[in-house]
Amino acid sequence: MAIDVHVHTRGGEDGNRILETLDEAGLERVVLLAVPPQRGEATPEDAHKQSIDDTARMVAPDAERLIGFAWIEPTLSDAVEAVDYALGEKGLRGVKMIPNHWYPADERARACYAKIEEYGKPMLFHTGILWGVSDTSQHCRPAFFEIMLHYPKIRFAMAHMSWPWTDECFAVCGKFRAAAGSDEGREWSSFVDITTGAPRIWKVDALRKAFAYLGDRQLIYGSDCFEPENGEALRRHLEEDRSILRDAGASAETMERVLSKNALRWLGIE
Ligand SMILES: [Zn+2]
User: How far is the CA of 32 from the centre of ligand 1 (A)?
Assistant: First the structure.
């Protein structure tokens, strides 16, 4: 069984239906990402509340298998409050962010990290080239995530292996390993979400390098699927990545770590 750590919701999905799709797809658990709160002049003061409430409702049928992540946009005025609301009051399990025209070391983002660290919950960052949102890929380069060295209790994952900056991503991840090695009591807090972005030929090549340099304990599987009620789509993503991992030389044990065990550690479940 596998855990998919990167599934988007569009809002309004039915948690019971998602549980059925997990069975169809051969998934043990799924991380469901809230809808991003919109920015703009008409943004209400409690912009995050609606998406957090909807995610909490969605995961209610089985909060073990359905793992809700809040989407926090640090540039909105209610961001820090929203972290409290999501992780405290609503019991969501982590936070997703996209550096959208702000850098990871932005003071507003740092205020959110400080709050998230108090809860000891994991984070998922979009990293790498960014489709869809206009000219903001530059804000998502992996080296900027060195700022997370200042938040050692946040286990954070860099999504999409930061493609096309996979080497930079692994080097940053290696730097967190070194930090853990030189600082007693500090864990290796950086993870790499292997969610697609890179075309297959790059992905196989990058995973080979990742296994050689980082080993197989920090990599986690995600699909970046936008259809949590579509078991067939989730299953297809999983099959594709199983085949890519095999081509990259993953043993059965490595496969189990990447597809399931490492995610449990990142999520703080075991
Ligand atoms: Zn995504």
Answer: 10
